[in-house]
Amino acid sequence: MKTDERQVIRWILPMPINDDELINICFNYTLQKVLIRRGIDLKNELEKYISPSELPNPEDHFNELYKASSRIIKACRRKEQIAICGDYDADGITSTALLVELLSTLGAKVKSYIPSRQDEGYGLNLSMINEINKQEIKLVVTVDNGVSAFDAIKRSKELGIDLIITDHHKIPNIKLDMFALIHPENTPFNSPYKYLAGVGIAFLLAKNICKKLNFDINNTTANAFFCIGTVADMAPLKGANRKWLKECLPTINKTSNKGIKSIMKKLSIDNIDITSEVIGYKIAPLINAVGRIGDPKMIIDLFTSDSKVYIDKLAKDCFELNKERKRITLLTEQEALEIAQREYKCDKKFLVLMKREWHPGIIGIVAARMVDKFNLPTAILAKANDGTFRGSIRSNNKLKVNIALEECSDILIAHGGHSAAAGFSIKEENIQSLREKLNEIAYREFENIDLNKVINPDAYLSFLDINLDFYNQLNLIGPFGIMNPKPIFWTRKCKIIDIYKLKGNHLKMTLNDGTNTVHAIKWNGSIKLNKNDLIDIAFYIEINRWKQQDKIQLNIVDIKNHKDIVDLKVHNKNYKCQLIDNKNILITNTNGQSISSDSSTLPENLNTKQIVFAKKILSFAEIALGKAA
């Protein structure tokens, strides 16, 4: 199905589902179809999917977890000094705050170390280890970093420092010598702990320590930190991540952490249910803003202080930094867009955009926005304080950017990250070579790939079926995020009852599909629409809280001008399908031959194979025309 929107080229509709695959329970049949299409065996897996089972003993999955936990417990009992070395993004900051809070509560003297994004770059480094040694600290725990800090690892060993590394970034093919390593790559195949972000590893370590000490982790605010860091780092919502998020998300509003409560109050989200979307779009950007352009110690202090006056001041400063971050980001985005458009016109498949004056702290955001606009992997580079260039890459999910950087390692100073997002540092004279290499890699990898932007709606949904009960059941299959995306629904022939523009080029609409009327919003709506127009829409379902009332609202992903005749592509063959008298489906191929859902009109000369195929085409047409979910 083609779209009239500039960015989205077409909708890829889901496969038909036979009704005999559904089960007879009080669970919405449309949502059952969504789950079946996502590979869930309803008869055997639905209950476990909605209420995940208990996790295995983590010490059976992490060989050095017992050793690490015992060493930390020993330090707490002896009131030793412990250094927690984190990172400046939301994952690293929440990981750091989580362990600082817990280990301080358990008796240790804890000091946090976060590198400067501008001056030091990512992760544990030599100067940090030397400073820790001056403080006579003999136990260091890294969170969300460490596996690539070869010089720091070697130096800590020389100084007799017990170094426990907890990290989730790819382990390099180099022998690492430290006290203990806790990393999901070292877990068994199919371990539920495989997908943990940095804060997830810190949370697991914290839970293990608490279990050994018979201490209730709920007496800390670790649950809230886990949720914020996991969602902010876009960790896959499978296994332990999914289970712990389902358990912990509903408790965030009840957190005793004064810093988190202060943020939520300023964001006006203190009286709503905190979802993964709220974290991703509201809380995480604020935390990240501090690490991007300010001193990340500010947010650590916000999360670990007890002084209300100090917390209020820190929260105010954080919001000012976020405001400045937005201003810088907008200016950089506008400049990057001009360069990107030139690169795009030259048929580049990997956009590499550079300007010395750009702020290294916001290049990751800008890279993500370029990917959203051009659907190509993008690297944004800016000059760092040490004279080298820092780069941040985001992928279009069709290229593993961390592996692409591996191929370019001979011209890089350092690099690391994940398949979807990565970072690196490079000398200026090597940037052109990097641009050429990345473009060659992209051309190779995209040789047989359609780079047009598409959306994949999960199911057709009439407005009559959209209500609070449906929304509540929808949330049962959440939380939503990476590897469990929020379902996209679609509806045909929606009449625009009312429409008006909001500030920022957003559209607010009232729609009716013939069964019911709903309110909808389209952010950044570029399509021209008028009252009484008929449109087809793809959308998310969300709650709009206004004056203490919860009302269903559609968040429109894409809009098509409605057409009675739908273009359908099945097995690379094109068909046109339409409803006759709003009842029977008529399908016509490119040769002008037609079949109808009225079985009496099927051509008499069709053989068994052709009849089976005709029924298959009809089942696809039912979905395309909104006659089946």
N-to-C span: 16 Å
Q: What CATH architecture of the largest domain do you see?
A: Alpha-Beta Complex
Low-confidence stretches: 2-6
- The CATH topology of the largest domain comes to inorganic pyrophosphatase (n-terminal core)
Domains (count)? 4
Structural class, by secondary structure, is alpha/beta
**pLDDT averaged residue by residue:** 91
Described by the principal axes of the CA atoms, the overall outline is globular
Main β-sheet, spatial strand arrangement: 3-2-4-5-6
Tell me roughly what share of residues is in helical segments.
25-40%
Rg result: 27 Å
Q: How would a textbook summarize the main sheet?
A: 5 strands, parallel
What is the percentage of strand-forming residues? 15-25%
Give the tally of β-strands: 22
CATH class of the largest domain: Alpha Beta
Provide a count of the helices. 18
Describe the structure.
It is a single chain. The chain has 629 residues and is an alpha/beta fold. It folds into four domains: 10-38 and 458-561, OB fold (Dihydrolipoamide Acetyltransferase, E2P); 60-318, inorganic pyrophosphatase (n-terminal core); 348-421, Roll (Diaminopimelate Epimerase, Chain A, domain 1); 566-624, no CATH class. It is built from 18 helices and 22 strands. It has helices at residues 29-37, 42-50, 65-77, 90-105, 126-134, 150-158, 198-213, 222-232, 239-248, 258-266, 276-293, 297-304, 308-345, 363-374, 401-407, 431-445, 468-476, 608-624; strands at residues 10-11, 81-85, 109-113, 139-143, 162-166, 180-182, 351-354, 378-383, 389-394, 414-417, 421-426, 454-455, 459-460, 489-502, 506-512, 517-522, 534-546, 549-561, 566-570, 573-580, 584-589, 594-596. The strands form five sheets. The chain has a five-stranded parallel β-sheet with strand order 3-2-4-5-6, with helices on both faces. β19 (566-570) and β20 form a beta hairpin. α4 crosses α12 and α7 packs antiparallel against α8. The longest helix has 38 residues, at 308-345. The protein is globular. The two termini are 16 Å apart. Residues 2-6 have low confidence and may be disordered.
